[in-house]
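Data card: per-record layout.
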Amino acid sequence: MVWNDTLKREIPLGWEAYNIKQLTTITWGQCPDGANILPIDTIEDDVLDYCSGAGDMKNGFVVKCKAKTNGSKRLSKANDILVSIAGKIGDMCVVDHTISLGRAAMAFSANNPNEHLYLYITLSLLNKKMTTISSGSIQKVINSNHIDEFNFAYNQQIVKKWSSKYNLIFSQLISLSQENERLITFRDWLLPMLMNGQATVSD
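The structure for this 203-residue chain is written out next.
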């Protein structure tokens, strides 16, 4: 173990201090105009699911948007890691399809596609720091200056080996979350049918 001045702690020999900006492309959300925010059940060709912030990140591993928009200004794509950066700081989830991103959220895209799971775990470990360094007199927020403090120990070869063994977990978590949502949708449709007698369960 050797002392690292950036991290202010000892790290394994051969590891370096990295900033999250060195491994990711960051997208800062921007809200569509109010008239372009639509109900989640809107069915049109030019609409996208819209993530406004922490409220869309509380339903499990995968984002569950509560609105749609036909006026997207910033996009987040599959395998991005979302982090809420205003109000409730540090909530996280994963994107499984292209969505529109509001200003209370930011998206981290791994520069190396094989490091999605490593990125998710790293951001999870930085979660406490996010809440500590957020600033604002009325509402706490994360801004671009705070990202300079998102530092961690990194060794490319070891992360590559680790990712080759465990990346399957990332896709499995997404698949299971999607299946859970399908089951919830089916339950919400079936339960009223059973209660009003439109459907019955036979032995």
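Known properties of this structure: The radius of gyration is 20 Å. The chain has a mean pLDDT of 88.

See the next section for split statistics.
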